[in-house]
Amino acid sequence: MIDVVSYLPAKRKQTPLGWISFNAPCCADKRQRGGLKVSDQGWSYHCFNCQFTASFMLGRSVGVKARKLLGLLNVSERDIDLLNLESLKHRSIEGILDERQQIFNALSDIKFEEKEDFPPHVELLTSEHTAYWKYVRERCVPDDYPIMVQMKNDGVHWTRDHVIIPFTYKNTLVGWCARMLSGSGPKYINHSQPGYVFGTDLQKYNWQHVFVMEGIFDALCVGGLALMHNTVSDAQARLIRSLGKEITVVPDQDAAGMELVDRAIELGWAVSMPDWPDNIKDVNDAVVRMGRLATMITIFRSRETTKLKIELRKRQLVRKTQ
What we know:
Distance between the termini: 60 Å
Number of domains: 3
Largest sheet: 5 strands, antiparallel
Oligomer: single chain
């Protein structure tokens, strides 16, 4: 396999998240906003300036975007073709199933407009951004999700400290959300498109279940989906069903969350309402206090599929929150 790191510019640095930062070759970047993350099986690239993305995984064909990036890094066409042949020789059942999933996704007519309207002066979050880093780590967000920070106010965007969570669909930027860290006013300011569900790109083809929650941090800490409100629109329901997995709704354990339970029953989806301690309201709270594994165990054990059992558990929670 091509050692793609050897083709990178000499001027580069590695972040605590494992990303290698360098001047992005896909645009006129001079601030090392190109990011490459390498694994034993391939690599993933994201430009935090022009939002160009590309990736390669052993066992798959070298795609158009991956070819473009390798060309920009001065990898010869011959070496790219050899990489493609080598990759196909290592084709595994995992690679075949993954390509089938990609074909299934490509056939879907669910589309979102690509957005490149990030606020100005954003940077990839690293441990150098001390307060922001501490906040995100305390929320148990995985290290490999590209949380952003806006380092300079331009007189148009907010003056309150915040982190920015990119919204992607099929690895394309389609929106973003700012989560305020302090001050009065709304905690979240979303720039999302109708019918969008956060977290579809977090799903793996071999996962049998998908968990649907309200909050973005709920979804990030367990690899689930976030509705970003306490109901499911018809367009969101269609998108979630298109994933082809067993759907379980895990509502917030408050009055608003119970409205999501009613909608889940209407859609015929399973619901999980674990018997968590009183100081745990949602999935993110549970992960912060109990850990990811313990939280997932409680969710699976509390999963109900029959309307009667879901209604009974809902009544218990309503009495508990009153």
